[in-house]
Amino acid sequence: MIKRNRNSARQTDRPSGLSRADRAALNERPAELNTAPHDPDSETAWMADGNCRLHPPATFFPSDGVGVDRARKICRDCPVAAACLEYALDARIDHGVWGGCSERERRRIMKRRREDALTATSSVSVDVSV
Question: End-to-end CA distance of the chain, in Å?
């Protein structure tokens, strides 16, 4: 049996001493602003203008409330926060912080919208019958 010490295993697992471009390549992300080239005609073209492009994706999928607050601070001044939130609501994305809203907040928004739609539908049917 070959015995390895912990330090040698850590050094091989960790990409230390790599340039920024090499680290980006390992993460499968281009080095320029940490974003991939986008198609300006796609429905997700707004993503290229988001503040999140400058942060690792894990920042927006936190496991605790502190992480949610950190992601919200990034989203607070984002020029595409409204488009981001609408995208998450339309796609029914269950996880992460999108448009500055947590999973729970998006569920509440969806519930409120369903209730508003039912109320609008019932008031239209009443107006038609009168």
Answer: 87
- In the numeric block, the tokens 């609008």 are attached to 120
The contacts of residue 93 (CB under 8 Å, 6+ apart) are 87, 106
- The two counts, helices (H) then strands (E), for the chain are 5, 0
Alpha-carbon gap, residue 62 to 71, rounded angstroms: 8
Q: Judge residue 101's burial from the number of C-beta atoms within 10 Å of its C-beta, 0-12 exposed, 13-18 middle, 19 or more buried.
A: buried
Determine the Cα–Cα distance for residues 80 and 90; give it in Å rounded to an integer: 15
In the chain, beta strands by DSSP E = none
- In order along its 130 residues, the chain shows pLDDT tens digits of 565 555 544 444 444 566 766 665 555 444 555 445 667 778 888 999 999 999 999 999 998 888 999 999 999 999 999 999 999 999 999 999 999 999 999 999 999 999 999 988 887 655 555 5
- Show the tokens assigned to 48: 């290229």
- pTM above threshold 0.85: no
Q: How far apart are CA 45 and CA 39, in angstroms?
A: 6
